[in-house]
Amino acid sequence: MDRNGWQLCVAPMIDVTDRHCRYFHRLLAPRARLYTEMITTGALTHGDVARHLAFSQQEHPVALQLGGSEPQALGLAAKLGEQWGYDEINLNCGCPSERVQKGSFGACLMAEPTLVADCVKAMQDVVSVPITVKHRLGLDWDESYGFVQDFVGALYDVGCRVFIIHARNAVLKGLTPKDNREVPALRYDQAAQLKHDFPEAVMVLNGGLTSQEDCEQERHRFDGVMLGRAPWHNPIVLREMSQAWWPLDTLLPEQEVIEALACYAHAQTQAGVPLRVVVRPLLGLFNGRPRSRLWRRMLSDSSLLNDSKADLIRQAYDLVGAPA
Questions:
Q1: Mean per-residue pLDDT for 174-179?
Q2: 81 and which of 86, 94, 178, 249 could share a cystine (Cβ 3.0–4.6 Å)?
Q3: pTM of the model
């Protein structure tokens, strides 16, 4: 396992990090580790596997995030993920939504470390790619360090070596998922204590990181950082971080990024994917630039999108204009 493979990650986000979003993010950040939306074991057992798991080879390294709490079902889902070519299988132990709680997975699993350890072991037994866990620091308003230390320790004991720490609690009752990204206090020091106590593990910090400056401040204490909503609202942050952290890498010029996106959109629309689905992740690309509103308006215009002509991306870029 390459311990450096988690230096820059983009978080799994439902209704955000679909395959089209990931393809776009890869153009901006060649070394970033990308994550799927959370996919439940039931969706893979009873649903359209290809629809859930298909992705572009350009997305590597890409991780499949699973939601579930039954070791056997997670083992089967992880095996499918490896067969489809994913580089990592990640278990969601951080989502606080009521719907996820009703399925007995997500953040509520932190109250059952033995069960989570069984789930991790069941997946490890059937795949060769890393099995990782994304979790919170605690549940509800209990901020005792011992709780998360015991949780991580139980998984470490069965061989889990990569932990993605959303550095705040998950409040299971009374807060919406959006509130849970903002209201519980961030506790980076407690997350860093986990790295101190489990030095052989890869510890990735998530939560509250929105800029290169934020990540630089915490980078020395962790093996990597994971950005959440920031790349959705301001995708260029991925390019900025790639330039700063890997200055010898050659990044695609902006015009070539646009051309790659147009070609990709053409291929996807030819395969029956609505153009609006493909361009949705692109809306924030030029935030802060003159005429960025025009870019967003064109890529959101239903009359233009209904034509499903990928050349719309080129046309919008021509109007926005190249950077000064």
A1: 88
A2: 86
A3: 0.96
